Amino acid sequence: MKQVIIVRTDLGMGKGKIAVQVAHASLSAFLEVKRRNPELADAWLSEGQRKIVLKVGSLNELLDVVKKAEDEGLPIAIIEDAGLTQLKPGTITAVGIGPALDNVLDRITGNLKLL
Predict the structure, then answer these.
(1) C-alpha–C-alpha distance, residues 103 and 10, integer Å
(2) Mean pLDDT for each consecutive 10-residue tract of the chain (115 residues)?
(3) CATH number for position 8
């Protein structure tokens, strides 16, 4: 079991900004899993909270992944920036998916590269 976080690289975010967006995506997706399936969330916590951070080069590419995850019924968290520093308010920066079973996530994100 793992969680996948996907970050847009076309926005030119700094390293610190990316780290914050990844953290938002991870925690928000986890809270969605905890709400929908507390047993799965607890299992992921007890297994070490494995995470993979991947990248996409555009909003369209990110939204394609979101659609596939939604079609699988996976919990997702779409992160929109508040616009206080580097980006315009409402800019979609990242998505968290899961935690979920590895094979399900791999079907959706297996073609993406590591950040």
Answers:
(1) 28
(2) 98 96 98 96 96 98 98 96 87 98 96 97
(3) 3.40.1490.10
What's residue 80's pLDDT? 96
Name residue 53's beta-bridge partners.
5
pTM: 0.94
Neighbouring CB atoms inside 10 A of 48's CB total 9
Residue among 108, 86, 82 nearest 2 (CA):
108
Q: Is 21 left (phi over 0), alpha (psi -120 to 50) or beta?
A: alpha
Whether the CB-CB separation of 102 and 50 falls below 8 Å is answered with no
Number of H helices, E strands in the chain: 4, 5
What is the identity of the amino acid at 74?
L
Query: Residue 52's domain spans which residues?
Result: 2-114
Residues contacting 44, CB < 8 A, separation 6+: 1, 3, 30, 33, 50, 98, 99
Amino acid at 100: A
